[in-house]
Amino acid sequence: MIIQVEQRHVYGSIKYYPLNELASRFAALMKQKTFDAQNLADIRRMGVQIDVWVPGYMNDYLAQARI
């Protein structure tokens, strides 16, 4: 299982927005639209791989989350 999220800076905070269906389902279960670092750490402890898309980098690549 892999969830994909996009990192965005919102009013000085880093938020992670779901990009695929599985990420959207996790967000819905948590009754929120975005994730923070703690949410992603909890999901990762459940054995789910997290790919983070960081806009602005060369070729806009998916990077493994180091959360």
Can you walk me through this structure?
With 67 residues, the chain is of the alpha+beta class. The protein has one domain. 27% of the residues lie in helices and 34% in strands. It contains two helices and four strands. It has a four-stranded mixed β-sheet. A hairpin with a 2-residue loop joins strand 1 and strand 2. The protein is globular and about 25 Å long. It starts with a strand and ends with a strand. The model has no long low-confidence stretch (mean pLDDT 87).
In short:
It is built from 2 helices and 4 strands; from the N terminus they run ββααββ.
- Please give the number of β-strands: 4
Q: Kindly name the structural category.
A: alpha+beta
Q: List the total number of helices.
A: 2
**Average pLDDT:** 87
Low-confidence stretches: none
Total domain modules: 1
Helix content: 25-40%
Spatial strand order of the main sheet: 2-1-3-4
The CA-CA distance between the termini, in Å, is: 17 Å
Main sheet: strands, sense, barrel: 4 strands, mixed
> What is the H/E order?
EEHHEE
Q: β content, as a range?
A: 25-35%
Structural Rg:
11 Å
Oligomer category: single chain
What's the overall geometry? Answer: globular
Give the SSE map:
Elements: E1 2-10, E2 13-18, H1 21-29, H2 37-45, E3 49-53, E4 62-64
Parallel strand pairs: 1-3
Antiparallel strand pairs: 1-2, 3-4
Features:
globular; 27% helix; 4-stranded mixed β-sheet; 4 strands; 67 residues; alpha+beta; single chain
